[in-house]
Amino acid sequence: MELKKNPKADLTKNSSLYFVIGLAVVMLVVWRALEWKTYEKTNEYDVSMNVDDDLDEEVPMTEQIKTPPPPPPPAAPEIIEVVEDEEEVEETVIESTETSQEEEVIEVEDVEVEEIEEDIDVPFAVIENVPVFPGCENESNKRACFNKMMQKHIGKNFRYPEIAQEMGVQGRVSVMFVIQKDGSIGGVRMRGPDKNLEKEAARIISKLPKMTPGKQRGRAVRVPFSIPITFKLQ
Predict the structure, then answer these.
(1) pTM higher than 0.85 for the full model?
(2) Secondary structure of 37-96 in the HEC alphabet?
């Protein structure tokens, strides 16, 4: 025996229709909710403050302070006396310095200008008349004789410092000095690897004899001179 279902009992028959109707109702409710506008209630009465006019009150008037009038100006003297200066002022007359055509022009003789001697240094290599070492007066080549006598003087007075020998110090000391305008030695400067060697080089130069000063254009000048002294252990 087959079971037959009653068409009225079918619940899914109009489900799609009900779904569409429900969706339309929900959308209508949401739209109305979004479009809903509310307004604040306004008072129909005047909210202005009831201020009573106090125009009827009397305002007291301030009294004006009276200032005293300014004092009158002093009276002018009736008679003005004019006092004359007793002292006489001498006027200063300024004479014109311009010369006229009638005045004679005095010729001025030549003025002699004295030359001021300046202390200048002329290097040994370029000086006209080199300083003369004692013993080179009669030599024709005084420059070569000067260098020869300098080497002879250094070899004669050379002495190696004992402390430098013990420390094993050796090297070259550059000595610079100036032959003054009177032939004396001055301005001695040294530069070397050790102070003991520099001291010995200064001692050798200090023993140089007085020389004939060098001349430039017939005038005695200072002549700088430099020479190396080599200290070498045997």
Answers:
(1) no
(2) CCCCCCCCCCCCCCCCCCCCCCCCCCCCCCCCCCCCCCCCCCCCCCCCCCCCCCCCCCCC
Neighbours of 99 (CB within 10 A): 9
Spatial CA neighbour of 175 closest among 234, 105, 92, 231: 231
Task: Say whether pLDDT at 229 is over 60.
Answer: yes
Question: What does the mean pLDDT of the chain come to?
Answer: 78
Task: Please tell me the CATH code under which domain 142-231 is placed.
Answer: 3.30.1150
Instruction: With H, G, I as helix, E, B as strand and everything else as coil, classify residue 33.
Output: helix
Cβ density class 44-76: b for 16+ within 10 Å, e for less? eeeeeeeeeeeeeeeeeeeeeeeeeeeeeeeee
Beta strands in 93-183 (DSSP E): 171-179
Rounded CA separation 220/96 (Å): 51
User: Locate tokens 């003789």: which residue?
Assistant: 109
Q: Rounded to whole angstroms, how far apart are CA atoms 207 and 143?
A: 20
DSSP state of 121: B
Where do the domains of the chain lie? 142-231
Q: 212, 132 in Cβ contact below 8 A?
A: yes
